């Protein structure tokens, strides 16, 4: 509960600044492409450093890693309002802030995921995963309208101060946790390259998890691009920053509902049923964005798409972490997230370029077509169709 509550507050702060980042870039430059590139810079570290980060997290004290990361992220976000007050805030600094945030998020995220099987019993992992999804969905409901309101009524940089404070709360909550975040390490350390290869080889030899890794990367590539597309579509319809926040709050209702029903769905339906249905729902919703007459309808359609995300994440995440041995948690999850999270900046950058070059509506159709292709492939994949709801192997 300490870990969960600290990350709930931190996620709320990140959601507030997450909406403010593209709005700030658009206010400074007026360029959708620049907004996409800034978001891409935040995600690039997962492509560049996630594998060595995972190996290092398996070596280091996971709790200490998380404490250092959130301390740095608090200072990084606090520098935005400081520079604004001094009159020196620039697009170059925003790129730097985005890069620092993304880099330390990689280490924190890998350490947090690796620590979860030590913080809760194995039998509680599905419930813990669903509870994490509920926290993310709940904060996603509140953070967009709050971020838009603060951006519009207080100042363009104030949302970043709120995010800095939320990281401080995370640090305090971590300090109160007494549970060890990893088993005792007795093996002699080897070359980093050898340890990274062990994690990648373990992942590659698990056909279902391997396919799910690339499927998640593809869904993130197409799905997360729609965040920027929805924002641009709403602005084209005359929506203010506050109304854009309300639109994303409406969409987040779907995520909250999905997180609440995820445990029941996970118990009642098979792995293949859940994954295939979730992928198809997400794929069929995206093209409908082009028909939405106003931001409220855009938000309602987003709610349908967001409904499936926590269900999909809870099912595939709890299956994976239940199967990975503790000594490989950091390395395997970093490899999974290199593909899954690393696809996000590429999709966001492409979305910004497509919006600026061919328009928002054609861009929606491009990403919608990508998700439909993924849904077809997933429906016929033999590893998905044969998957059991509970792994047969217990990690050691």
CATH 2nd-level architecture:
Up-down Bundle
The best one-word shape is globular
Secondary structure tally: strands: 0
Radius of gyration: 20 Å
In whole angstroms, how far apart are the ends? Answer: 25 Å
Q: How much strand?
A: under 5%
How can the largest sheet be summarized?
none
**SS-based class:** mainly alpha
CATH class value: Mainly Alpha
Enter the CATH topology name: Growth Hormone, Chain: A
Order of SSEs, N→C?
Answer: HHHHHHHHHHHHHHHH
Number of domains: 1
List low-pLDDT spans.
392-396
Describe the model.
- This protein has helices at 2-29, 32-59, 62-86, 91-119, 125-153, 158-175, 192-204, 207-223, 225-236, 241-268, 271-285, 295-323, 329-340, 343-358, 360-380, 382-385.
- It contains 16 helices and no strands.
- The two termini are 25 Å apart.
- It is globular.
- By secondary structure, the protein is mainly alpha-helical.
- 57% of the residues are buried.
- The protein is 82% helix and 0% strand.
- The chain has one domain: Up-down Bundle (Growth Hormone, Chain: A), CATH 1.20.1250.
């Amino acid at each position: 509960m300490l870990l969960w509550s600290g990350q709930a507050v931190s996620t709320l702060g990140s959601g507030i600044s997450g909406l403010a980042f593209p709005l700030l870039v658009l206010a400074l430059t007026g360029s959708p492409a620049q907004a996409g590139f800034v978001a891409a810079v935040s995600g690039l570290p997962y492509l560049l450093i996630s594998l060595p980060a995972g190996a290092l997290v398996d070596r280091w004290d996971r709790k200490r890693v998380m404490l250092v990361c959130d301390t740095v992220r608090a200072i990084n976000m606090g520098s935005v309002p400081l520079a604004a007050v001094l009159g020196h805030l620039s697009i170059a600094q925003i790129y730097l802030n985005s890069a620092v945030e993304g880099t330390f998020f990689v280490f924190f995220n890998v350490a947090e995921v690796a620590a979860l099987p030590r913080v809760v019993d194995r039998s509680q992992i599905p419930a813990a995963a669903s509870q994490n999804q509920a926290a993310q969905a709940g904060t996603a409901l509140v953070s967009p309208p709050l971020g838009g309101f603060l951006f519009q009524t207080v100042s363009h940089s104030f949302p970043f101060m709120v995010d800095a404070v939320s990281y401080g709360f995370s640090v305090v909550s971590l300090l109160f946790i007494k549970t060890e975040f990893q088993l005792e390490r007795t093996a002699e350390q080897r070359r980093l390259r050898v340890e990274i290869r062990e994690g990648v080889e373990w992942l590659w030899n698990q056909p279902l998890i391997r396919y799910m890794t690339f499927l998640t990367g593809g869904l993130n590539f197409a799905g997360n691009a729609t965040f920027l597309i929805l924002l641009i579509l709403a602005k084209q319809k005359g929506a203010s920053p506050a109304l854009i926040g309300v639109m994303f709050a409406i969409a987040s209702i779907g995520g909250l509902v999905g997180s609440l029903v995820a445990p029941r769905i996970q118990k009642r339906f098979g792995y293949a049923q859940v994954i295939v249905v979730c992928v198809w729902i997400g794929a069929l919703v995206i093209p409908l964005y082009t028909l939405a007459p106003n931001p409220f309808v855009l938000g309602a359609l987003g709610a349908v798409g967001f409904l499936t995300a926590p269900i999909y994440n809870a099912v595939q995440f709890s299956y994976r972490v239940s199967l990975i041995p503790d000594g490989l948690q950091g390395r395997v999850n970093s490899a999974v997230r290199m593909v899954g999270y690393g696809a996000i900046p590429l999709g966001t950058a492409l979305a910004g370029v497509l919006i600026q070059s061919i328009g928002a509506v054609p861009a929606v159709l491009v990403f919608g077509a990508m998700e439909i292709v993924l849904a077809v492939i997933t429906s016929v994949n033999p590893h998905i169709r044969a998957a059991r709801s509970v792994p047969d192997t217990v990690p050691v």
